[in-house]
Amino acid sequence: MKDQPLKNREGLTETEFLAAYDPNRYGRPSVTVDLLIFTVTDEETGSYRRLPGKALKLLLVRRADHPFLGQWALPGGFVRTGESLNEAAVRELREETNVERVYLEQLYTWGDVGRDPRTRVISASYLSLADSSCLDVRAGSDAGEAGWFTVVCRLTQERKTVTPEGHILAKTYSLSLRHGETELSAEIEAVKTVEGRVSQTQWEIVHSEGLAFDHAKLIAYAVERLRGKIKYTDIAFRLMPERFTLTELQKVYEVILDKDLLKANFRRKLAGMVIETDGMTKDGGHRPAKLYRFNAAWADSDANEEGRS
Amino acid sequence: MKDQPLKNREGLTETEFLAAYDPNRYGRPSVTVDLLIFTVTDEETGSYRRLPGKALKLLLVRRADHPFLGQWALPGGFVRTGESLNEAAVRELREETNVERVYLEQLYTWGDVGRDPRTRVISASYLSLADSSCLDVRAGSDAGEAGWFTVVCRLTQERKTVTPEGHILAKTYSLSLRHGETELSAEIEAVKTVEGRVSQTQWEIVHSEGLAFDHAKLIAYAVERLRGKIKYTDIAFRLMPERFTLTELQKVYEVILDKDLLKANFRRKLAGMVIETDGMTKDGGHRPAKLYRFNAAWADSDANEEGRS
DNA sequence: ATAATAGTGTCTTTCAGACAGTATAGT
DNA sequence: ACTATACTGTCTGAAAGACACTATTAT
Q: pLDDT for B120-135, tens place per residue?
């Protein structure tokens, strides 16, 4: 607004100030992005003229170095100086899966001290969803082993304690990840405390086996979030191929929500989000189904999304 | 699982590896927390026996140094080495407002390059809500001026463009912040792009006057989030005093949502969240109202809260 | 015919929205 | 009586949940 440069208390102009600025005045943590890349695959039922089931899969990589050598971790890496947080997430995603144009959304940033034994690390977690037919399932040009793990995350306990000033709601999730012979498991608790006019939610790992860092927590959090958002947004379609039957779509919802839905109601609810194509399935032993595609003109009500919050 | 220590490719055990680890191998950005501290205050209507109106207020501090010297910014600061992200937010909140036990929730982490001219800065934004009667309104033991700004954030334009492969939904918000003679204004766009099976939302500042950094974006995002959450959680009560009338509560909803609500419906919807007390208002020229308090046993359905998503 | 899936019709309950009405203090 | 607020009753229509029913293919 003024043409003559402002000076601060030391009498420096902004240019002078910036030239003298020492970026190391405050300790600097390392910042990483961690990716939760989910997809849904068909699982053969084997038996005669039955439709394949669906499984929710998550990509994990095996750690080839300390710390947590040999354990499984979420793909991710350090944010570089010249790239934004989102760009780092896109880069890591491409490095791990060779896909680029898929759904990617920032979830939560984890910043506890001691999360990483090497140094102070703050990690922004990103949720990514992809159609399995677009993915090289032998993922990872990156070094080391990678694998798609079948995810089962189940609410196993819900405790509510009423206190004089409020209540405590503790939910325990058991998380199980399977890939071939490898089975990882963990138990995570989400504790919500309401006390007077204050409330707070905390996620804690009760126990974790085979998973590196605090990644069990990040996974449980992401699954919960996925479950929440699938109810009121169109994210499920990010997991579908171009054309699909309504039964396939319903199975995707069911595997994510970990519960069965009623067919008639499901179809009514999703009617506006899909468009009938002229294709039909013509496989085996039963009535063929119409193929649908996503109605890209459908607009959800939620503005707060970061490709949400 | 094994008692004999694992060694990596260089033959180092974990202890050896950690001792040799160079934390500066990757560039380290600075990390800050930025606080969006909202409260609701009474605004005198002046005129005869009328109830006071309500205003949504946000705490801003005036920058006493470069960059953006003299402009207004969100309170916040660097995360220290020994404290978690949440702890840093709690500390900054205390430093700015002398309150500690209030609602605090992580919102989103902003990591664009060039957000801060000093150095690479990544900022986790936190939403805080407090009852104005708990706050020292002359906020800030911290150096410099601070002020509670009346927030008006209004959706001024909504453009939907249908493309062959999807659609683009652009929402323009006009943000206005007033505190005494000072008036800050900005225009922010939230652009959601749906293209085939990919979607993405981006927030951009169209113009910003008097607000430092990209804080206009953080504010618009927080207001949108607050509007979203007030509909399905109990956060509104974090802004209320111990006892309140239903009309007061309704006015808080109205000032946040920036629209009028129908009384009968509002009361029906909130009936389960409040408990009648035996108090009554006994002020002026009209029928007295019952006083209510928050029903702390009320449980919202949303697990995904930090301190949701 | 039968197995297995595809797809529809409709009843009930719940809830949001709209509106009209009654009640009660101070002056 | 009048003003300004407090509070209630009820109609409507949309959406969610539950369930029963019909349709169509390959073998």
A: 999 999 999 999 988 7
Using pLDDT thresholds of 50, 70 and 90, give the confidence band for residue A309. very low
* Cβ contacts of A191 within 8 Å, gap of 6 or more: A168, A169, A170, A171, A201, A202, A203, A204
Chain B contact for A144 (CB, 8 A cutoff): no
Tally of residues, chain A: 309
Whether the per-residue pLDDT at A1 is higher than 70: the answer is no
Quick check: is B44 catalytic?
Answer: no
CA A186 to chain centre: 17
The single-letter DSSP state of residue A129 is E
The alpha carbon of residue B101 is apart from the nearest alpha carbon of chain A, in Å, by 6
- Hey, are the CB atoms on B108 and A306 less than 8 Å from each other? yes
The DSSP H or E segment spanning A30 is strand A30-43
Encode pLDDT of B186-205 as tens digits. Answer: 999 999 998 888 888 999 99
Which one is catalytic: A16, A95, A145, A189? A145
Residues 6 or more apart whose CB falls under 8 angstroms from that of B40 comprise B54, B55, B56, B57, B132, B239, B252, B255, B256
Which nucleotides of chain D have an atom under 7 angstroms from any protein CB?
3-10, 16-20, 23-27
Q: Is the CB of A285 under 7 A from strand D?
A: yes
Residue A241: count other Cβ atoms within 10 Å of its Cβ: 14
Q: State the distance between the two ends of chain A, measured CA to CA, in whole angstroms.
A: 35
Which positions 107-126 of B are in contact with A (Cβ < 8 Å)?
A: 107-113, 117-120, 122, 124
CA distance B150 to B93: 19
* Distance separating alpha carbons of residues A254 and A234, to the nearest angstrom: 15
Distance A284 CA to C2 C1' (A): 14
Give me the amino acid identity at B2.
K
pLDDT tens-place string over residues A200-216:
899 999 999 999 999 99
